[in-house]
C-alpha cells in the first residue's frame, strides 16, 4: 500500500524520528500534567465542582495565553526552534515541580493557578514550534502523511500520559502531586532529547537581532499584521477558511467536553472516583478516534481534498452527535467520544496541511501561534457558554442540539467555499 510505503520512508528519516520523539515525550508529559490538574480541580472529593468552576479554571489557564500567544509566533520566527524545545521543556519540568509543591502546601488557589498557567504558556511555544518545524524534516510529497502521523501520535501520547496518570492516581493510590512530578520527569526527558538535533536544522533561516522591549512590542504588532495580511491574500484563502472552520470545531468540542466532565462527575457515576474512572475510559476511546483519524485522513484527503474532508468531518458530527448524545446514557456517550475524536483530529490534520502548504516558512511560526490562540479562545468561550446553560448534573438537550446545529451550519458554509473545486492531495 502507498500509505504503508510512505510511512516506512518517514520513519527512516532520522531527524523526523527525533522530532517525533520530542513530540511524544512532550505531549505525553502534557497528558500526565493535565489529568493531574483535572483530578485535583474537578474530582477531588472535598470539592463541589460546577460548570462555572470548570469554565473559570479554563479561563485562568488559557485566556491569559491569548496575550502571550502572538508574541510566541514572533519569537519562534527569530529563535532557533531546537533551542525553544530544549529550554522550554527544561523550564516546564521546573515549573511542574513547583506546581506539585504548591498542591501539598497551604497556599491560596490563585498561586496554584499562576504556576499552572506558566506551564501552559510555555507549552504554546513548544506545540507551535513542532508544527512549524515539520516541513524542515519531511519532503512536500509526504507532508500530509507526516501531519497524520506526527500530531496524531502526539495526541495519542497525551492520551497515554493521561492514562498513566489515571493508573498512578487510582490503582497505585498516588497523590496528585506525585502524578505532577511524573509529568515533570517526562518534560525533562523531552528537553534532553532535543539536544540530539542540530541547532540550525529546524530553522528559521533568518536570525535578526533581538530588539529592546518597547521596540519588540511595536515590531510584534507590525509583524502580526503582516502575517494576517499574508494569510488574507487570495492565494491563501483556503488556509484562512480552514482556520475559521477549525476554530468553530474547537468551540463545539470545548462545549461538549465540559458537558462530559459534568456528566462523569455527577449524572453517570456514584462519586468522584467512579467519575474519574469513567472519564478515563472516555478519553481512551477519544484517543482511539484520534488514531483512526490518522489512518483514514491520508486516504480521504487524497481523494476528496483536505477542504472537503473537513466538511465531511463536521457533517458527520452534525448527524451523529445528537443521535448519540441526547440519551445521556453511558454507552452512546462513550461511542460519541470516539466519533468526536475521529472527526476533530481528522479535520485538524487537514487544517494543518492546508496551512503549512499555503504559507511561507518565514510566517509559519506566527501563523501557528495565532492558530493556537484561536484554539484557546474558542475553547474557553465554549466553556463559558456551557457554564451558562448546563444544569448541575450536566444533562442539557439544548446544548447538545445547539452544537449539532453549529456543526451543520459550518458544513454548509465550508462546502460553499469549496464550490470552485479543490485539487486532491498526493499522499
Quick description:
This protein has helices at residues 2-12, 14-41, 51-62, 65-76, 81-103, 109-137, 143-171, 176-194, 213-232, 237-267, 272-304, 306-325, 330-358, 361-389, 397-417. It is mainly α and 427 residues long. It has a single domain (6-417), classed as MFS general substrate transporter like domains (Growth Hormone, Chain: A, Up-down Bundle), CATH 1.20.1250.
Please provide a written account of the structure.
It is a single chain. The protein has 15 helices and no strands. The relative contact order is 0.16. It is globular and about 55 Å long. Helices cover 81% and strands 0% of the residues. The protein has helices spanning 2-12, 14-41, 51-62, 65-76, 81-103, 109-137, 143-171, 176-194, 213-232, 237-267, 272-304, 306-325, 330-358, 361-389, 397-417. The chain has a single domain, classed as Growth Hormone, Chain: A.
Amino acid at each position: 500500500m502507498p500509505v504503508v510505503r510512505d510511512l516506512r520512508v518517514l520513519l527512516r528519516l532520522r531527524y523526523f524520528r527525533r522530532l517525533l520523539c520530542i513530540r511524544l515525550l512532550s505531549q505525553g508529559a502534557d497528558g500526565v500534567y493535565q489529568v493531574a490538574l483535572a483530578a485535583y480541580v474537578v474530582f477531588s472529593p472535598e470539592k463541589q465542582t460546577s460548570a462555572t468552576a470548570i469554565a473559570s479554571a479554563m479561563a485562568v489557564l488559557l485566556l491569559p495565553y491569548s496575550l502571550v500567544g502572538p508574541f510566541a509566533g514572533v519569537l519562534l520566527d527569530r529563535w532557533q526552534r531546537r533551542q525553544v524545545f530544549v529550554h522550554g521543556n527544561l523550564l516546564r519540568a521546573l515549573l511542574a515541580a513547583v506546581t506539585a509543591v504548591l498542591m501539598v502546601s497551604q497556599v491560596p488557589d490563585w498561586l496554584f493557578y499562576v504556576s499552572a498557567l506558566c506551564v501552559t504558556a510555555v507549552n504554546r511555544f513548544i506545540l507551535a514550534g513542532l508544527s512549524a518545524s515539520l516541513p524542515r524534516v519531511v519532503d512536500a510529497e509526504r507532508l500530509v502523511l507526516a501531519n497524520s502521523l506526527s500530531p496524531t501520535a502526539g495526541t495519542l501520547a497525551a492520551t497515554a500520559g493521561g492514562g498513566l496518570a489515571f493508573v498512578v492516581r487510582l490503582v497505585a493510590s498516588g497523590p496528585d502531586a506525585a502524578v505532577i512530578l511524573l509529568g515533570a520527569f517526562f518534560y525533562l526527558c523531552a528537553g534532553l532529547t532535543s539536544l540530539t538535533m542540530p541547532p540550525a536544522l529546524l530553522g528559521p533561516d533568518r536570525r535578526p537581532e533581538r530588539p529592546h522591549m518597547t521596540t519588540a512590542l511595536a515590531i510584534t504588532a507590525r509583524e502580526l499584521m503582516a502575517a494576517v495580511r499574508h494569510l488574507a491574500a487570495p492565494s491563501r484563502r483556503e488556509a484562512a477558511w480552514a482556520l475559521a472552520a477549525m476554530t468553530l470545531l474547537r468551540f463545539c468540542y470545548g462545549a461538549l467536553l465540559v458537558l462530559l466532565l459534568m456528566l462523569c462527575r455527577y449524572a453517570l457515576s456514584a462519586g468522584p472516583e467512579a467519575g474519574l474512572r469513567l472519564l478515563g475510559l472516555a478519553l481512551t476511546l477519544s484517543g482511539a478516534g484520534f488514531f483512526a483519524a490518522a489512518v483514514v485522513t491520508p486516504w480521504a484527503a487524497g481523494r476528496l481534498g483536505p477542504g472537503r474532508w473537513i466538511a465531511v468531518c463536521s457533517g458527520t458530527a452534525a448527524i451523529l452527535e445528537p443521535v448519540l448524545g441526547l440519551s445521556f446514557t453511558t454507552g452512546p456517550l462513550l461511542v460519541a467520544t470516539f466519533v468526536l475524536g475521529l472527526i476533530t483530529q481528522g479535520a485538524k490534520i487537514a487544517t494543518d496541511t492546508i496551512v503549512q502548504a499555503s504559507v511561507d516558512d518565514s510566517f509559519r511560526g506566527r501563523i501557528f501561534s495565532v492558530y493556537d490562540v484561536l484554539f484557546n479562545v474558542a475553547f474557553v468561550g465554549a466553556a463559558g457558554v456551557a457554564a451558562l446553560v448546563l444544569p448541575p448534573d450536566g444533562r442539557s438537550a439544548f446544548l447538545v442540539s445547539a452544537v449539532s446545529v453549529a456543526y451543520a451550519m459550518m458544513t454548509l458554509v465550508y462546502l460553499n467555499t469549496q464550490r470552485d473545486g479543490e485539487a486532491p492531495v498526493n499522499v
